[in-house]
């Protein structure tokens, strides 16, 4: 990766404010909330899920941590690939059941090696791939397959 | 509302391409897919859900139609408030289980009268409202309460 990891300083949200904020979030019946990640160019990168622990860690460390529904574990974005997300801002929607994260994305967000996960355009002629990978999954993960 | 309703021409996706596309979408166990709406300024407006019927209608008409999980019915955005969303583009993510819609939003997307639903910032001092409503819910809905 040639892109520099411009780490940003996140002012950690401390207890008891963190506890107060987490108490306001409306997690769903599985204890999860959807989180949209948007970069500084306002490019929407991905949507993933957080449980209470993942959101608490994200707001405390400034490093975005999701919850992997398939692996049923915390998913520290970039822990395998190095493609970390530094948190710049976070906002809840009107129903308090969805998060919009503004992030500084190192490299690519998508496990396919694309900057954004949203590359499959629905068009009158069918599904069209809008972008090519910037990097191969092999280069991202070595012999591994998941981020 | 002073904002002009700049209707856009959406090239309808016809059968059988529509059927082919809908067959690729990974709806969840409730038959739903999450859909993020982003406007032409790349402002993320809202997240809502679609079932197969809502997505088919959206791709056919170019007017965004969601599925209301609370009302258990199709939710043609703006049918009560007039704040319609004209579809400009739609893309699926890498897992084919989330949609990113680019829309021309008439007026405001949020039922609170704000342009975007994501106005509750999570900050070290607590939840802070980032924006004020552009219009009151009463002006949007009259005596009604939901869009």
Automatic annotation (TrEMBL), chains A, B:
Ligand binding (Mg(2+)): 93, 95, 97
UniProt-annotated location(s): Cytoplasm
Top EC class for this record: hydrolase
Originating gene: hisI
InterPro entries (UniProt xref): PRA-CH, PRib_AMP_CycHydrolase_dom, PRib_AMP_CycHydrolase_sf
HAMAP family (UniProt xref): HisI
Sequence positions that bind Zn(2+): 94, 110, 117
Function of the protein: Catalyzes the hydrolysis of the adenine ring of phosphoribosyl-AMP.
Name of the molecule in the record: Phosphoribosyl-AMP cyclohydrolase
Chain ranges of the Phosphoribosyl-AMP cyclohydrolase domain: 46-119
Any single Pfam family the record assigns to this protein: PRA-CH
Organism for this UniProt entry: Bombella pollinis
């Amino acid at each position: 990766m040639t892109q520099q990891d411009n780490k940003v300083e996140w002012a950690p949200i401390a207890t008891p404010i963190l506890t107060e904020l987490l108490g306001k979030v409306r997690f769903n019946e599985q204890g999860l909330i959807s989180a949209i990640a948007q970069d500084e160019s306002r490019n929407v990168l991905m949507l993933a899920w957080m449980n209470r622990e993942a959101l608490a860690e994200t707001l405390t460390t400034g490093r975005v941590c999701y919850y992997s529904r398939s692996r049923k574990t915390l998913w520290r974005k970039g822990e395998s690939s190095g493609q970390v997300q530094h948190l710049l801002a976070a906002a809840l929607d009107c129903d308090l059941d969805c998060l919009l994260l503004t992030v500084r994305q190192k490299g690519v967000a998508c496990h396919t090696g694309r900057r954004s996960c949203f590359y499959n355009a629905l068009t009158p002629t069918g599904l069209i791939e809008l972008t090519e990978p910037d990097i191969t999954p092999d280069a991202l993960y070595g012999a591994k397959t998941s981020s």
